[in-house]
Specification:
Blueprint (H helix, E strand, L loop, with lengths): L2 E8 L2 E13 L5 E5 L13 H10 L7 H7 L7 H13 L17 H9 L12 H14 L12 H14 L7 E2 L5 E2 L4 H13 L5 H11 L1 H4 L5 H8 L4 E5 L3 E5 L5 E6 L7 H12 L5 H7 L2 E4 L2 E8 L6
Antiparallel strand pairs: 1-2, 1-10, 2-3, 2-8, 4-5, 6-7, 7-8, 9-10
Helix pairs in contact: 1-5, 1-6, 1-8, 2-3, 2-8, 3-5, 6-7, 7-8, 11-12
Length: 318
């Protein structure tokens, strides 16, 4: 059963509670903390993107550099720099936006979306937050001569390679696939297996596909997420951290020594994810800084005044 992990306090009153599950793995793969349902499969959603990127590298995707590899792992906000990176990736491989099967969308970033709407722009596939991953998958298809119009199909050679890679990195037998929000197959994993996969990324030898993905994420956290998003804020505050959010309250990551974590918020609330991840990092032993203290306690506002906070429940992780 999941446990109470995060509370929202307004004017000294506990307004609501978010339940969930989490696991912390030592570098040797042993759980130093396990709360809730850490062996029950969940959909990791976009937390799977680093593992999918490993599969793409193994399948012939040749990024121009770490920026192109980073955008292949991203859940970007559709900001101009994100869109330019996606379009450059497509163009370099002889592809264009019409080849994408990611659904059309407007940018998730409020400012970017407002500017486009003011100019009368319509939703586009490159604005969708998974367009970098889709573009890299198409590039892998082009490199192998695989059909591009069916790359979403679970039976496609590329998707079979993704499944094999995720199974290998996570060390968990495969479950029945689901369909992610972007239309691609999503591989269910337990939180323990998800954390184990992140350990595999950061502890791999330099030059391997796993390590290349981890290094690209660390080098370009803004490309992987976007302005003000959880991952760029955390990786900017904690040197060496590799982490990746997933929709509906999922987060996973690892430190350079291989210590890893994975969590899932039951109700999918994004607001619970950041303070809980910071509390996890503190529990692991990450040095406390002013930046982390700010992330650990997002404000609850009454008008324009801070009247409370969102925080990990005191003693929940002890």
């Amino acid at each position: 059963m999941s446990v109470e992990l995060v509370e929202v306090v307004r004017s000294g009153f506990r307004e609501c509670v978010h339940r969930g599950s989490l696991v912390i793995l030592d570098p040797d793969g042993e759980a130093s903390l396990a709360l809730g349902e850490v062996h029950t499969p969940i959909y990791p959603r976009s937390s799977s993107k680093p593992m999918q990127a490993v599969a793409l590298l193994r399948s012939g995707f040749e990024p121009a550099g770490s920026r192109e590899l980073a955008i292949a792992t991203s859940s970007h906000e559709g900001e101009p720099g994100h869109v330019a990176a996606v379009e450059a990736l497509l163009a370099r491989h002889g592809l264009n936006e019409n080849d994408l099967l990611s659904p059309p969308a407007l940018p998730a970033n409020e400012l970017a979306r407002a500017r486009l709407l003011a100019d009368g722009a319509a939703p586009r596939r490159v604005f969708m937050n998974c367009s970098g991953k889709h573009s890299a998958m198409l590039a892998a298809c082009a490199a192998n001569g695989w059909p591009r119009e069916s790359y979403l199909d679970p039976g496609h050679p590329l998707q079979r390679a993704v499944l094999e890679t995720i199974t290998e990195l996570s060390g968990e037998a495969e479950y029945e696939l689901g369909i992610d929000g972007c239309g691609l197959p999503v591989v269910p994993l337990s939180l323990t297996a998800l954390a184990r996969a992140f350990t595999a990324l950061v502890t791999a030898r330099p030059g391997t596909a796993e390590r290349s993905v981890a290094d690209a994420i660390r080098e370009h956290p803004w490309l992987v997420s976007g302005t003000g998003r959880d991952d760029v804020r955390l990786m900017s505050a904690v040197p060496g951290l590799v982490c990746k959010t997933g929709a509906d309250g999922v987060h996973a990551g690892a430190l350079p020594d291989g210590t890893a974590f994975a969590l899932k918020i039951d109700d999918g609330a994004e607001r619970a994810r950041l303070p809980l991840t910071v509390a996890l990092l503190h529990r692991i032993g990450v040095e406390w800084t002013e930046d982390l203290a700010e992330l650990a306690s997002p404000a609850v506002l009454g008008g324009d005044v801070r009247v409370g906070t969102i925080r990990a429940i005191p003693d929940a992780l002890r």
